[in-house]
Amino acid sequence: MDVMESKDGYLVHEINGTTEFKNTVAQTGVDIPGAIVDYALSVIK
């Protein structure tokens, strides 16, 4: 989801149907997909 701030508040201008993390781990050194799964599992336990 892409959100921008406008004079009237926050504006959602794009929501993607699928999420891709193909380059994020190499660029950031953080396993973002793994962190999302870990968080989701911790919430449902």
**Largest sheet, spatial ordering of strands:** 1-2
Low-confidence stretches: none
Counting DSSP H or I runs of 4 or more residues, the number of helices is 2
Oligomer status: single chain
Element-by-element helix/strand order: EEHH
Structurally, the number of domains stands at 1
Which structural class matches the secondary elements? alpha+beta
Instruction: Estimate what percentage of residues fall within beta strands.
Output: 15-25%
Q: Note the gap between the termini.
A: 27 Å
Number of strands: 2
Q: Overall 3D geometry?
A: extended
Instruction: Report the biggest beta sheet as strand number plus sense, adding barrel if it closes.
Output: 2 strands, antiparallel
The rounded Rg comes to: 14 Å
The amount of helix comes to 40-55%
Mean pLDDT: 88
What does this structure look like?
This protein has 2 helices and 2 strands. It is of the alpha+beta class and 45 residues long. The protein has one domain (2-44). A two-stranded antiparallel sheet has the order 1-2. A hairpin with a 2-residue loop joins β1 (2-6) and β2 (9-14). The radius of gyration is 14 Å and the shape is extended. The model has no long low-confidence stretch (mean pLDDT 88).
